[in-house]
Amino acid sequence: MAETKTGADLRALLKEQALLEENMGLIGWDQLTGMPVDSGEFRAELQAYLTKLYVNAGTGDEAKALLAYFNDPEHLAELDEDEQALFERFAHDAHYLLKVPADDYIAFERLTSKAHDSWALARAKDDYALYQPDLEGLIKYIKQFIPLWRKNEATPYDVLLEQYEPGLTVAKLDAVFEQVKTGLAKLQAEIKEHGTEPNNEILHRSVTKAMQREYTVGAIERLGYNFNKGRLDDTIHPFMQDMNRNDARITTRWADTNFPMAVLGLFHEAGHGLFAQNVDPKWDYTPFNKGISMSMHESQSLFNEIIIGRDEAFWQHEYPTLQATFGDALKDVSFEEFYPAWMKTQPTLIRTEADPLTYPLHIIIRYEIEKAIFNDDLDVADLPALWNAKYVEYLGIEPTSDLLGVLQDVHWAGGAFGYFPSYALGHLYAAQFRNAMNREMDVEQLLGAGEYQPLIDWRKEHVWRFGASKTPGQVLLDATGEELNPQYWLDLQAERYRKAYKI
Hints:
Elements: H1 7-33, H2 40-59, H3 61-70, H4 73-76, H5 81-99, H6 102-125, H7 132-149, H8 156-164, H9 170-194, H10 209-222, E1 232-234, E2 240-244, E3 247-252, H11 259-277, H12 287-290, H13 294-308, H14 312-325, H15 335-342, H16 359-375, H17 383-395, H18 421-438, H19 443-449, H20 453-462, H21 472-480, H22 487-500
Parallel strand pairs: 1-3
Antiparallel strand pairs: 2-3
Helix pairs in contact: 1-2, 1-5, 2-6, 6-7, 7-8, 9-22, 10-11, 10-14, 11-13, 13-18, 14-19, 16-17, 16-18, 18-22
């Protein structure tokens, strides 16, 4: 007979796991912001130790006793509605932990720490070969784990997609991406044939880091990011790290002659931070506070970066502040010159610097490469060549170095395969949220007036407060009244770019 368990027992174990996750998140943030270069080996050991504790918590006697007791429907009914949902998530996560030998999982996590360091070194030296052995090791582990994790997924890569986006499959993504590619090709052809290309040289004028920081800190605070619950640090690759809803840290990188990179980058990371800071407190110390779908998280960072950060009415309000903060850099530039320059579309090698029309192609490239790795057993040594070929195929430009090519993203160093499609889905979700929001309020009027609070409140009510307690599909359906429809994103881009290009 199974040992009697209660909702308090379940919450106690979830809290233990959450506290360990916070510790791992904190040392991960430190590794990418301020950790001494020579301490990598020690950091890897600490990461492995915390991972061991985490695995033990999720697979130990108490975890097995909870699974045995609440897998009985009669006992599950003893839990309240929230606790039942938490148990279902606990059982889902336990599947992935219990199926993998603990020693292998710990070794994998130790290798991710080492891979972060070799990736950073490879970037510094512009040499993929310095990173390749660790990347090969990570992929080998994941290929070893996939048969253990697999339920009824059609392909190995589907197993990885499932972990980031429940219910997402290669078949579904192929259809969505085909619609996006077709719509983009049509719009880009229209721009090329009938558009007047803006001059964006003004965006590369010199602006000091101090000036950029002053503007962006103020702007993201106006958009709702709370610095009492966060902080801003420098890093190689921007990210948001949330320990809990009162500690959601953001990072960025700066360039004196490329201020849009930091402005849009911080809008993006602050969007992630807004989500993390506004999850309902009832989900503290539970998977629903931290295990949020990446596509839903990206929809909120991209709402900030693209829906707001590329909006003409928003910049009509914000540009005088930007102009004043940047001193002489934009003193002679009218808004009528600034906004078309801000919206110029052109292929770029760097994903994080891509404009909305080319960004999805960067994601599709990574998606196709990941499929090739796990469904077609692509040799890791061939990654740079395939990467470069895909950039020629989709964007008409070829990386001239590993730094500008296969080394630009940190995700694979963390073993995050299957993550990249979340960025593209986030674009689509964000546009659909905007469409639904616009049925209740005049989004353009509010942005033009600098009245951002109604937009903040809508997202808190319809998205943020749920954390991971609802699937992305449920959040989207409940908030917008329909399932995913990429056409909203395509229509929004067409409207904006036809105006920017005077079509």
